[in-house]
Every structure is written in C-alpha cells, then in structure tokens.
Amino acid sequence: MNKFKTAVLPAVLSVSVLGLAACGNNEGETLITSKAGDVSSANVIDQMGKDEVAQTAFQILMTDILKDKYGKKVDEDKIKKDVDAEVKKYGGEKQFESILQQQQAGMTISKYKESRINDAYQTELMKDTVKVSDNEVKKNAKKGSHILIKIKSETDPSGLTATKAKEKAENVLKEVKANPDDFAKIAKKESGDTGSKANGGSLGYVVKGQTVEAFEKALFKLDENEISGLVKSDYGYHIIKADKQDDFNKQKDSLKEKVRQAKIQENPKLMIDAYKKLLKDYDVDYKDKDIKKVVDEQILTTQGAQQ
C-alpha cells in the first residue's frame, strides 16, 4: 500500500505544505528569498499539484497517527541497528546506498531507515485489523518443492518447445517416481527454475495466492512427501512434492504475516476501513477541501490502495 508509506519529499517541504493546508494561508510560508523574488510554499503547491500535496500531507498525517498509537510496540532503535547491520553486510554505506538508489531514485540510508520504521507501524495496524489463527495458517500455507521443465516463450526463450518440454517432463517424472528419495538431487540437475534449483527445488512454505492457480491446487491436494503428476502452467511443466513441515512452529509467525498480506490483497477494503476508523478516532479535520477530496476519492479507495 504505497500510498501510506514514507513521504519521498524532503521533510522541511512536506511540513511546510501540511502547515499551509492546515492554516489556509493563501500566501504561504516563504521558503527562499532572492533579488529575483521569493519562493513560497504556495508557489510550490501550485507547481506540484493538489494530488501530490494531498498524498504527501496524508502520508505525514498517518505516520504521526500510527506512531502515536503503536509507539510502545515498535522498537525504532532496533530497526535502525538492523539496517546498520545490513549496510555492513553489503559492503558499507556507499555500496548499500548505491543498491538502494537502483531500486528507488533518491533513496538514502536515512530514508530507508524511516521507511523500515513506518513499515513496522503499518504491520502493527495490519495485525490489529486482520487476525490470523494458527488453524488458518495450516490451511493456507504448505511446504513444497518442484522441478520445472520450461516451455520457450517470448519473455523467456531459454525453454524448450511445447512438445519437447512435455517429453522431457514425462521422462523426468518417471525418474522421480522410480527414485522419490532423490527428488532434490534430480531437481538440481533438471529443473529450469533458477530460484529453487540450487536448493533441490525447495520453495519453502507457499501461501495460497502466491503462485499460479494450477500449481497451488496441485500442491495443496498432496499429502506429506507425496509427488504430483505433471502440472502445466504458463511457465511449463511442474513436478511438485509436498515436503515435511517439521519446522512449522518455528516459521508460524512469519507465515501468519504472509497469510495476512494475502488476505489484504484479496480484500483491500479491510485496510481502507481501518484507516478511516483511525481518522475518525483522531478527530482529523481537513482545512483544505481539495485535499479532502483527493483523500476521499483517490487515496482511501480500493483502487488507490492497490497502486
């Protein structure tokens, strides 16, 4: 839900914009002076447009509300230390910041820390909003491995023709059925899924909604250690194994979060209603009608939440 994450604009500008919206001052605060003329927050708003101003103001507002509500549940110092450990792991500040900027222009380590902190507050709101029981996790998460024989496509020319892919998949399936204990070994040799091949085809825990429908249906029908027949998807032919879930209790909390995310993706209105309740609880009053209109019609909507 990117609409509700950390504002990308510099903090000083964002606060000035929010202050202008709150006080209704048409002239705005003077930000820069020169012999050629002054630049006010009103000038900046005119240049940015109401949509961007409203989104930025709303982001700041929600950050403040979530920090007030969940401040005792989020350890900001620990999050910052975790980021520092990441920075060290990836070769230092310069290297890490370069990686960040490849993902999002203008991103810095400081902004990344703020983003991680805001994500933690968002997670607390999601926990309050979408409850997930242990039983739901068991129904919606399953540990599995697969071997993929890829079919050549426009986006991935490395696969085989449909006919050759099916022929190879049938031969690999025969080998797997004859030697089920060698599934991982065969996957390392034959699978076209580079993401799981090195791990013997292991996908870890798969949560419903994460994979294509044909794959999901096949995996969740299997009993522990059972191996499927050929399962065709847009990627090619899969041979799927349901793995032993001996680490379920250890993984349960992280799986709950994945199931929660899947529920929200399926029904974004859950979070929209949660934000609306927060705004009501905190007596939010929009002093600018245009900002209120953008929030109501573009941000707090199902379409807005999915962008």
From TrEMBL:
Keyword Cytoplasm: no
The reaction(s) this protein catalyses: [protein]-peptidylproline (omega=180) = [protein]-peptidylproline (omega=0)
GO molecular function, one term: peptidyl-prolyl cis-trans isomerase activity
InterPro entries assigned: PPIase_dom_sf, PPIase_PpiC, PrsA_foldase, Trigger_fact/SurA_dom_sf
Taxonomy, superkingdom: Bacteria
Keywords: Isomerase, Rotamase, Signal
Signal peptide as annotated in the record: 1-21
Top-level EC class as recorded in UniProt: isomerase
SUPFAM superfamilies per record: FKBP-like, Triger factor/SurA peptide-binding domain-like
Enzyme Commission number: 5.2.1.8
Ranges for domain PpiC: 139-244
PANTHER family per the UniProt record, alphabetical: FOLDASE PROTEIN PRSA, PEPTIDYLPROLYL ISOMERASE
Protein known as: peptidylprolyl isomerase
Organism in which the protein naturally occurs: Macrococcus lamae
